[in-house]
């Protein structure tokens, strides 16, 4: 990529988010930490986050498709975008993406350095070519085709993946997902696994109130299709104290409330390190399916950074450790009990000492900025 070397002249980076920017303030996600690291990166002369492109048929005739909003990350600008297309069909989407791209370009003004645009979701891939960027990229965190919450947008999800090409740089959170992108779309993705905020675990941190006095197992994350609620109930019925920190709704919330686990609901990202510092075992009771086969669970890295032993079902992950035990559904309860009975390790696991988010963010910058 001549003329776009981040080390020579710096770059301007525009990131099309896959999660609401407001939610990133309290939730620990890949792009929360990458944006924070990039905001402090000297090679990036300007950083702009574009809030999740909303597919909004009610704004078909609206002229205000892109607006500036206050940003909670110092050094990162925020643009809120509304894409005037119907959610269930791509009919007329080409014109809508062009209009939206023009609105974003006008709002951003002339590029301050070679512009790089990176999409963090297949939904926004069609917008890349309309942002006036010298180079575009895509970062794959999940296979959105199998996400339950994306089925009402499946036409747009498939359309976004279909627009991937060798002209785009591509990164992926796992080797399995990289292989899937190559097989299905002919894209060669560089695997850049998730990281962990090591500084957050370097000293005692505040935790939520009301935690058990004795050793307990913990799960941190959204309670959705990938979470095996039957396995959770097997743990609590066996008398194992379990704390669950994460949002849930509908049937999942009803089952959690009656599961025997201490369900904290959504826990602010600032309290997660302290919660893990007080636990004894980190749990990953995930269902084994195509979705979990493509993931790199951040919680595993966080558990290990907090000094926990980890018990996980046989799902994909990017780290191995003597403190980590993989167990099938039949062995999961016994493995968790055995981990609780062992002494808690001292300090972060050596397996994560090179996985700080600053390192991961710089690797992503290398992939997408040449």
Q: What's the CATH architecture of the largest domain?
A: 3-Layer(aba) Sandwich
- Tell me roughly what share of residues is in helical segments: 25-40%
User: Ends: how far apart?
Assistant: 6 Å
| Count of individual beta strands | 15
Could you name the CATH homologous superfamily of the largest domain?
Glycogen Phosphorylase B
Class derived from helix and strand content? alpha/beta
Strand content: 15-25%
Helix and strand string, N-terminal first? EHHEEEEHEHEHEHEEHEHEHEHEEHH
What do these coordinates show?
This protein is α/β, with parallel strands linked by helices and 370 residues long. The protein has 2 domains: 11-195 and 357-368, Rossmann fold; 198-352, Glycogen Phosphorylase B (Rossmann fold), CATH 3.40.50. 29% of the residues lie in helices and 18% in strands. It has helices at residues 21-24, 30-39, 93-108, 125-128, 154-162, 175-185, 229-237, 250-257, 272-278, 298-305, 332-341, 357-368, and strands at residues 11-16, 44-50, 54-55, 66-69, 77-83, 115-119, 135-140, 169-172, 190-191, 217-220, 242-245, 262-265, 281-284, 309-312, 324-326. Strands 1, 2, 3, 4, 5, 6, 7, 8 and 9 form a 9-stranded mixed beta sheet that branches. Strand 4 (66-69) and strand 5 form a beta hairpin. Helix 2 packs across helix 12 (357-368). Residues 1-7 have low confidence and may be disordered.
């Amino acid at each position: 990529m001549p003329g776009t070397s981040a080390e020579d002249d710096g770059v301007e980076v525009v990131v099309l988010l896959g999660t609401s920017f407001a939610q990133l303030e309290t939730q620990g996600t890949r792009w929360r930490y990458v944006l924070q690291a990039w905001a402090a990166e000297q090679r990036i002369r300007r950083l702009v986050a574009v809030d999740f492109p909303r597919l909004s048929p009610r704004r078909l005739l609206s002229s205000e498709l892109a607006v500036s909003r206050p940003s909670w990350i110092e050094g990162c600008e925020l643009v809120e975008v509304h894409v005037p297309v119907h959610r269930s069909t791509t009919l007329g989407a080409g014109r809508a993406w062009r209009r939206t791209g023009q609105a974003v370009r006008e709002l951003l003004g002339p590029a301050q350095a070679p512009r790089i645009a990176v999409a963090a979701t297949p939904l926004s891939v069609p917008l890349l070519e309309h942002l006036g960027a010298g180079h575009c990229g895509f970062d794959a965190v999940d296979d959105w085709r199998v996400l339950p919450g994306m089925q009402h947008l499946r036409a747009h999800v498939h359309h976004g993946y279909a627009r991937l090409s060798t002209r785009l740089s591509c990164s992926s959170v796992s080797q399995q997902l990289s292989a899937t992108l190559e097989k299905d779309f002919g894209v060669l993705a560089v695997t850049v696994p998730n990281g962990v905020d090591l500084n957050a675990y370097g000293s005692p941190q505040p935790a939520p109130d009301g935690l058990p006095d004795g050793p307990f197992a913990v799960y941190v994350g959204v309670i959705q299709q990938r979470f095996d609620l039957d396995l959770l109930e097997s743990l609590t019925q066996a008398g194992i104290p379990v704390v669950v920190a994460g949002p849930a709704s509908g049937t999942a919330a009803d089952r959690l409330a009656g599961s025997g686990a201490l369900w904290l609901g959504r826990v602010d990202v600032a309290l997660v390190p302290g919660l893990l510092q007080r636990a004894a075992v980190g749990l990953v009771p995930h269902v084994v399916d195509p979705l979990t086969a493509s993931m790199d669970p951040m919680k595993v890295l966080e558990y290990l950074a907090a000094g926990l032993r980890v018990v996980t079902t046989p799902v994909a992950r990017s780290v191995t450790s003597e403190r980590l035990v993989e167990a099938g559904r039949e062995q999961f309860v016994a493995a968790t009990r055995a981990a609780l009975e062992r002494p808690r390790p001292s300090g972060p696991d050596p397996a994560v000492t090179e996985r700080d988010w600053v390192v991961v963010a710089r690797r992503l910058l290398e992939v997408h900025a040449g």
